[in-house]
Amino acid sequence: MADEVILLNFWPSIFGMRTTIALEEKGVKYEYREEEDVINNKTRLLLEMNPVHKKIPVLIHNGKPVCESIVQVQYIDEIWPEKNPFLPKDPYQRAQALFWADFIEKKVCVCGRRVWTTKGEELEAANKEFLELLKILQSELGDKPYFGGDKFGFVDTVLIGFFCWFPAYEKFGNYSMESECSELMAWGKRCMQRDSVANYLPDPERVIGYVLHLKKLFGLE
């Protein structure tokens, strides 16, 4: 009997992009369900499958929910280990990959949000911190093609969703990603050569439009 896999997601979510890319990298057949209004009108299925956080993405595997995108990517890697393994087998390298994923989740995601939700001195501080965080990641990447070394791996999957959001950060932060983090931008373009990434990251202009909508919705203009 084939696995039943359903992904509840909302198209601009960096978190959902991780799970989508992981499923595509593994060649897993799944049903994609778009949550059209994750702010004011969450579906009953979303609330049933993620009663704690009530947020997307939710991966439903044979009727059982798996929540939180980093957990989902790790779960996908363990359930379908045969194709394109994400996490290294070596315990130390594995720990390092998990460390950087946690860094992205707790630092980059949080600070990135402040770039488009603040103004004045707060925005200046957010810009400075955000670029510093990205340069730390760029230093970790070094001269490797991917964070996973020669292969697209766990950290790449966790971070690449930011690539389609970079133009929005540039617009609202008023800086050039190419000038500030050229090696990281080259990494992003390299990742975009993969069908699993290029076909599932939304158009950056559409992301900018969505952020403008949010700023208006929450009175942040």
From TrEMBL:
A Pfam family this chain is assigned to: GST_C
E.C. code: 2.5.1.18
InterPro entries with a match to the protein in the record: Glutathione-S-Trfase_C-like, Glutathione-S-Trfase_C_sf, Glutathione_S-Trfase, Glutathione_S-Trfase_N, GST_C, GST_C_Tau, Omega/Tau-like, Thioredoxin-like_sf
Transferase is among the record's keywords: yes
Gene3D superfamilies given in the database record: 1.20.1050.10, Glutaredoxin (3.40.30.10)
Keyword Transferase among UniProt keywords: yes
Subcellular locations according to the entry: Cytoplasm, Cytosol
Top-level taxon of origin: Eukaryota
Domain GST N-terminal residue range list: 3-84
Keywords: Cytoplasm, Detoxification, Transferase
PANTHER family for the chain: GLUTATHIONE S-TRANSFERASE U21, GLUTATHIONE S-TRANSFERASE, GST, SUPERFAMILY, GST DOMAIN CONTAINING
UniProt name for this protein: glutathione transferase
Protein species of origin: Brassica cretica
